[in-house]
Amino acid sequence: MIYMDADNNLENASIEDFHEMSYGLYQKWLDDYQIDRKFAIVVQYDDYFRKQQGRYEIQKSSFFDESSTLTGKIEGTGNEVDMGSAQTLKDFINFCKEEYPSEHYALFLWNHGGGVRSSSDEIFDRAICWDESTEDGDPLYTGEISDVLTEDESVDLIAMDACLMGMAEIAYQYRPKEGAFGSQIITFSPATEAGDGYEYDHLISSLGDLETLTAEELGNKIVRSYEASYEDRQGETQTAVDLTKMENLKAAWDALASELTGLKDDIGENVRGSGEEVYALHYFQEGYAYQWNDYAIFDLYDVVLSIRDRDYSAVVNERCDDLLDSVDDAVITSFYGGDEDDFEDGKNGLGFFFPDGDTTWSDQYFYTSLDNDQFILWADENRSSWDGYGNIEMCDGDDDHVVESWFELLQYWYNPTRDETVHPGPMW
Strand, coil or helix: what is 347? Predict the structure, then answer.
């Protein structure tokens, strides 16, 4: 299931990717003439200029079509649809499950991505898939997907063909859990992706035996296909994560956080860095203040390894070892393009939000577990009106004056007076 939101400045890239799927399906058919009985690619498509909205089943093409015309429409969607609405996504998944019953489902979300970030111009807020034909360019907020979709819409694999989604917070949000939307495996990038994103012809033609293909194997193939396409391009990343391991990872992460309360200055100065002096592996341009403010994404394994190397105490070392093992267990495979010698496949590649909070925390109120109504109410009272979405589940806490999670540690470090006007959400 390809949720292809091209109702924005990526319309030309969407046409190319659509035809890549057709050509890749033909190449796969040459390898397996029974492909049509085993596999279907269904696209929910929306664009800005050409108005080819609808649902399509990808048809085989023996040549790479460079026209702007899409073929294989199976259902028109009538008037303009809001691809930034989780209800539209929900309807698409249910349509596919009803019309294309299958043992396994993979959902690809195709567009821009913003992870858990916010920004000064009020776009790219904790979301993916912006629809520019709607008022204010409505996106799919991270929390909105969780609020609207249910366990019935769950899939085996989620692939986020978008920038900046490869974060532990995103992985934890969509872990499998009873009664809620989730997945077993996710693939995504903690950095910006190339404008063309996945090379679908290469990916589809390399899928191997579809009758035995598992979600984990598909995740690995997505990463390896991305590597084959961008191995020489500096900073390109792609990571596959086993979401069934995220509960254990968070528990280990929170246990470490509870031991770091007195180490703020040393970790900030000597592990993370600040300004243009950044020491840990990261996925943003450190020389730009707005990037520190909007999405300070660091590599979780690298930061924890650096904390371990500083040998603060036996307890901290033990907690680091537990978290390093948990990250190693959760990250299936990963890729970093160019010459990053410290990047290790299967360990690095999972980002997390680590702000330079002495200067930014009061502006990073998007990083919160408040539900939508609470978040908007807080923004109306403490900032100018802010139309957004909260509900980042990783940002949890219980307000008991004891640091017991990563989010509580950030509040403890950067909001020690527990001032709700500084940053919303649960306090330590």
Answer: coil
Could you tell me the end-to-end alpha-carbon distance of the chain, in angstroms, rounded to an integer?
41
Helix axes 246-257, 300-309, angle to 10 degrees: 40
CA 371 from chain centre, in angstroms, equals: 19
Six token digits for residue 159: 């692939």
Which of 111-120, 225-234, 248-257, 289-298 has the lowest average pLDDT? 111-120
Write the DSSP string, 202-217: HHHHT---TTT--HHH
For residues 367 and 392, the answer to whether their CB atoms sit within 8 Å is yes
Tokens of 122: 């009020």
> What confidence score (pLDDT) does residue 386 get?
62
| Both tokens assigned to 147 | 């609020």
With 70 as the cut, is the pLDDT of residue 249 above it? yes
Name the phi and psi angles at 221, rounded to 5: -65, -35
If one counts every other C-beta atom within 10 angstroms of the C-beta of residue 398, the result is 12
Distance CA 280, CA 273 (A): 7
Q: Is 147 exposed, middle or buried (0-12, 13-18, 19+ CB in 10 A)?
A: middle
Neighbours of 288 (CB within 10 A): 11
User: To 10 degrees, the CA torsion angle through 175, 181, 184, 188?
Assistant: -70
Please list, in sequence order, all residues whose beta carbon lies within 8 angstroms of the beta carbon of residue 250, skipping any fewer than 6 positions away.
168, 172, 394
pLDDT, one tens digit per residue, over 52-99 is 999 999 999 999 999 999 999 998 765 689 999 999 999 999 999 999
**How big is the chain by its Cα radius of gyration, in Å?**
21
| Six token digits for residue 99 | 């019309």
For the chain, the residue count is 428
- The model's confidence at residue 123, banded by pLDDT at 50, 70 and 90, is very low
| Residue 159: strand pairing partners | 108, 187
pTM of the model: 0.96
Q: What is the mean pLDDT of residues 326-330?
A: 98
Distance CA 255, CA 316 (A): 9
